């Protein structure tokens, strides 16, 4: 999304909207523009990506606060390549601290690793990426800021930003995704093989009588951090065929009457 995209406008919200209002607006629009419901529609796909990015920022208190500051002061986003730097001062005023934002892909955030941060006037700083890092996490690297007048150096503060995923929505360590089934599959039940965020194939049992919008919980299939592993919630969307032949419709009606559904 462009840097000047207004996340509040994208979600149809006022700036002071509550966290619950942000969640409700996102879920409503995400269902409308989800790629599974708009196959081949590039515009809907881009809108969906924008909604995910808007939600990832506005649903996180720290990121939302930073975003609100940026909306009031666009010059706070001065970019020196990548990542974004903002000079500051330590409480003593003797050393110049530096703030940097490192942008990660969704997969990088899940798996962790290392990256380099280039501080203006200094050597590249090699930084560890915590496994399962949350968007908005801020870490401090002592002595890696700007040179100071007293001969020392300030500190480097790095905030991690994470690109949204096309398949998953993250809430803490839990992940959410949508699985579409036919009306008949929802009635009689089915089993689906899906790929989790780590590339592993898992089976999802969709029980008979599953209702549209019902969520199935897969324990231990969410984001894995050093402390815990979240769950994966699969929201079931039910599709109804738009067109049937007369013979198909008659057969369905006859079967439905025989088993007492009509």
TrEMBL record:
InterPro entries on file: DnaJ_C, DnaJ_domain, DnaJ_domain_CS, HSP40/DnaJ_pept-bd, J_dom_sf
Matching Gene3D superfamilies: DnaJ domain (1.10.287.110), Urease metallochaperone UreE, N-terminal domain (2.60.260.20)
PANTHER family: DNAJ HOMOLOG 1, MITOCHONDRIAL-RELATED
CDD domains reported in the protein's UniProt record: DnaJ, DnaJ_C
Residue ranges constituting the J domain according to the UniProt record: 6-71
Name of the protein in question: DnaJ C-terminal domain-containing protein
Keywords on record: Chaperone
